[in-house]
């Protein structure tokens, strides 16, 4: 009797999971359907893959940096999880943008940005870099210092 009850529980649970999967709104995007845009017409480009960073809830964003393009020191109001999708992403922390202190993160690498943690990042070398960012909205970005304060040059990935 106990065996039958356990079997029924397993079958019922499997049925519930199966029904939930059938009723979910799946989303799929091929790479050709991901259209990056820059608010400035040049420089870093972004696309929201899922959700909305300005509203409550989970969001997924991808940023593309052309070769040699970077952000300036800034922080976000909530935690963010970053995965390098393509290229080498040079990441640095702190309020001073010093390329000599940047760490190269290759495709597949991960970085956690804690809320309020000042950082800067971008694409060094000769190839574009794409990162995917997952976070909880709403989130705001605050720039630190002036964009003209840079030291050194982007190093080349080895």
From TrEMBL:
Highest taxon above the source species: Bacteria
Keyword line: Signal
Claim: Signal is one of the keywords in the record: yes
Signal peptide (from-to): 1-20
Keyword Signal listed: yes
SUPFAM superfamilies cross-referenced by the UniProt entry: RmlC-like cupins
InterPro entries, alphabetized: RmlC-like_jellyroll (IPR014710), RmlC_Cupin_sf (IPR011051)
Protein name listed in UniProt: Cupin type-1 domain-containing protein
Lineage summary: Bacteria, Pseudomonadati, Pseudomonadota, Alphaproteobacteria, Hyphomicrobiales
